[in-house]
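Feature request disguised as a bug report, sorry. It would help if multi-protein outputs had a clear separator. Right now it looks like this:
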Amino acid sequence: MGVNEAVTPSFLTQTTGVIGTTAILDTLIQRVSAEVTTE
């Protein structure tokens, strides 16, 4: 892992972070929408 992190360009790391954040936000939105729909 250490070697890959050193070789990986920063923009790839940033992109991965954005994708992860988007996935988390999407999951939260789906949960909230489900709760609102249920109520």
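(second protein starts here, but nothing in the output says so)
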Amino acid sequence: MPVVTSGKLDRPSVIAWVQSQDMDAARGALQPSAASALTAPISNDEKTMRSVWASVLNVHEQKIGRESNFMVLGGDSIAAMRAAGMCRRRSLVVPLQALMQSLSLAEVVSQCEEVTTSSSALPPTQPYEIPVVSDFPVEGFSVIDIEAVAEATDAQASIVALGELDRHALVLKTGLIFEPPADVARIKFACAQVLQTHEILRMVFTQKGPRLYQIVLRRPVDSQILPDEGPHSQRNDILPQFYIHHALYDAVSLGMMWNDIAAAYAGRELSCGTSFLEWACRLTQLDHLEAKSFWRATLKGSQLTYLVPPRQTPGTLKQVELRVPLPILAVPGLTTANLFKAAWALVMGREAGTQDVIFAEVLANRYDPSLSASINQETVRGPCMNTNPVRAHFEPNMTFVALAAQLQEQSLAAASFAYIGYRTIQKDCTDWPLNSLFGSVVNFQSPHVLGDEELDLGDSITARMMPPAASPPSRSSALWTIVRPTDEELVVGFNFSSAAFDEEKVKGFAGQVEDLLRSKPSDISPWISKASHGFRGQTSKSPSLAASSDEQTCVSQEFIEETPEEVRLVVMEVWKAVGLEIKEDHAPIFECGGDTVTALLLSRQYRRQGYNLTIGAVLANSSRQAQANLLFRSGMSQLSG
């Protein structure tokens, strides 16, 4: 389309240009080619590409020709990353951008390169110290009971910390419904088999120094399979219920678990998945220099965007749902996910009064090109998901589609560096305060991961999964959006705490998103000029991340005159043990190199010293002075053992 010298649309010329074009021909060019017009692949690389597309998109090979377009066939950014990974395992390197552009299969192959000795070599690694099992004692287990140890990922550590702040959050509650009723003994046997096969389900977390580690036990703990003593337990039908912390699963590994339960019940062979610890160790060894350089450049000068002041206040978790027909979201070359992100960024920007928006996106993180040649990331049995920042920058006269294209380009560029977690990005690539959390989180879920299909248990018995419920933290002031496409519509759940948002306000956000997705304005200027009175960046240096009044009481920051020296020394040693800088007595942990996960580590280190100090109490009393006062003034009882 015609543009002015700055690269923006030349609106008068666009109007004249559109009037002079054959729009019917343009529409026809966007339609999928008829099967009769398809040309079969010629080269081996084209045949490989067609096979990969057919597998990833669940399309018959006969419906894919040299003229076919990946996006028109139903591809999206996740499918593109899956396809790129599969191609690499078949010795073909395909650029993600080629799959996402309006290119034919033949044109995509022309941009590929063969995997050579140099291109298939392992990526640069950084020093990695293999943990010694004997250094990690677990209460109730001996050293021979420990199978393996690895450092927790950034995502796992953050989830564990947030989960301890809000015990009811980030725990999946679901189950299986059998038709007809199944045999109880076989169900227990199947669950035991899956616990043994999926090592992640035998995982416990422990703190050592400044890091959180995950330990795989050789045998499940005795309490992992329990009889239901509820009021319906005397009924003939069996309803196994599952409670799984989000630090132990993601949507992909959960689907693998369901299928293996069905296989174990039916006596079939269980899946051959990839060890999560092996994947996590490989991830730790990747060289972060290039990735950190990318994120520093991407986030330079940015601030976190908030819709309400950041805080942790008890509330009730609520949801507003939005449904948008998928046909109105069809824009050639752009994914539905990036169209939604563009709409949500504009809504956040208007509410917060900014033209530079930052929010978080939850990623599957199973398609890292550095690992795709050496490990099958799609079969990893564990929570590979990660959280990365998304930055949207608005300019006057910018079109909605141009904003979505900007976000898609950023997403593709970040794909090779998505393995770095939020904690690392925050500490090493931004100036954001270390006690800050995102104001909004977007989770775009694939429709193919957790469907409503039945599980075949043999003997004419089937099982259906109960609707899963994994609540975001109800004390968080962030707004969590869960986006899921179905066959006919895009379903968006806006999850929020009643303590942070009014329901009518969130309904207003949903309405604005729908308006943007339907209209796709050719000029976003009216949106960015009508700023609200929202909040942007940190409203203070230390917004409270502490939990509610059920935590230990916040005490004075000044040393109490009679506080024993030995108590102060305990606090000093605990801080040194978790790697905090030692500054003034009143300096909070966030000014000493710590974050929310550090508060979790402090809590666990205090317990080892015999003091029952929760993560909420650490956050509410974040300086050495306050923690020493708390230990002494509250008369805190030391733990036995």
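Even a blank line would do. Unrelated, but nice: Residues 117-122, 232-236, 537-544, 546-553 have pLDDT under 50 and may be disordered.
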